[in-house]
Design goal:
By secondary structure, this protein is an alpha/beta fold. It has a single domain, classed as Aldolase class I (TIM Barrel, Alpha-Beta Barrel). Helices cover about 35% and strands about 25% of the residues. It has an eight-stranded parallel barrel with strand order 1-3-4-5-6-9-10-11, surrounded by eight helices. Strand 7 and strand 8 form a beta hairpin. Helix 1 packs parallel to helix 2. It is globular. The relative contact order is 0.15.
Length: about 260
């Protein structure tokens, strides 16, 4: 069942990419004392109204000795941290639980969910669906059909994206982050047909991801794409638009109210 509507601030989820304990690339946000400090960037996003931040640690779990202390420091920002490591690959249940112990509010699983779906299911049963984000990297394979890719999008599979979305919900994922590999990094907007197809097929909230470049794209993802939330990366990280500007835009435009992602 979909939850109640929430303020538009809750619809915007900024993303911080991290490698070696540093934000990559350094942020273009004004006023930062250290543009590559993920904790400082998180604080700026939280102060501007973001209550959830997606943290993408782009390194193997073997480097967790560096990442876990950073994650603990990032919790001081006050926003919920949704965390994925090494392209969504969790080597074990204990590794995913270590992220929770370091302060993650939820763990994103992509490669793990495909290769070891029982791990996602067990984690959701033990800690609750609200702690699990099913991360989907998808690319169009013809018409309105998309297949899932793993290993950060570098390895294609024959899994149909909409079918897999239903399976992720059945396994226990509390929400789905739907990332378009075709639109990622282009600034041309979210893959609206993909986002809408998934959102209309599952009973859990969907986050649109990949391709956002303008304020209008945020509105499109929430209305035409039927998403509950929109992920932003470069647009916020570069300093082109603040989280406050994005929120104000959505308030002015007044997209249809969407369901709250579980907390």
């Amino acid at each position: 069942m979909r939850a109640r509507e929430t303020p538009y601030a809750s619809a915007i989820i900024p993303c911080i990419d991290v490698a070696g304990g540093r934000a990559v690339p350094p942020a273009g946000i004004g006023g930062l004392s250290d543009p590559a400090d993920p904790a400082e960037i998180a604080s700026v996003y939280a102060e501007a109204g973001a209550d959830r931040i997606f943290v993408d640690a782009q390194e193997p779990w073997a480097e967790h000795e560096t990442f876990l202390p950073l994650l603990k420091r990032m919790t001081d920002a006050g926003a919920d941290l949704w965390v994925t490591v090494d392209n969504g690959f969790m080597p074990s249940l204990g590794a995913a639980e270590a992220l929770l112990g370091a302060g993650a509010a939820a763990v994103g699983m992509s490669t793990t969910s495909v290769e070891r779906p029982a791990l996602l299911h067990t984690f959701a049963q033990r800690h609750g669906a609200e702690r699990v984000i099913g991360v989907m990297n998808a690319s169009r394979v013809g018409g309105d059909h998309w297949n899932i890719a793993v290993r950060g999008g570098g390895q294609a599979t024959d899994l149909d994206a909409v079918t897999w979305a239903r399976m992720l919900a059945d396994l226990g994922a509390g929400c789905l982050l739907v990332n378009s590999l075709d639109m990622e990094g282009t600034g041309r907007g979210y893959d609206i047909p993909l986002t809408r197809a998934v959102a209309d097929a599952v009973p859990v909230p969907v986050i649109a991801s990949g391709g956002c470049g303008t304020l209008e794209h945020l509105h499109d993802g929430l209305t035409e794409g039927h998403a509950q939330c929109v992920l932003v990366n470069k647009m916020a990280h570069s300093g082109d638009h603040t989280i406050g500007e994005m929120t104000d835009y959505l308030r002015r435009e007044g997209p249809a109210g969407r369901a709250e992602v579980p907390t």
